[in-house]
Amino acid sequence: MNKIRKIMNSKDLTIDILAAALNISDYDLELAIDSDELDIYLDGMQIEELIRVLDVDSDEIY
Question: Origin, by domain of life (predicted)?
Fold first, then answer.
């Protein structure tokens, strides 16, 4: 399980909740999380919003 999924599980967050917060599709967020290459699938503002919603430091997701 990758870092983001572990954080999601610890905070009881689901893909659909995070995708809604980032204003992207569930599928696109799944791709980003599963690939571990966030900057390929998400722009900088979306990554910052993901960090804010997860309430973590940026080094925790990279």
Answer: Bacteria
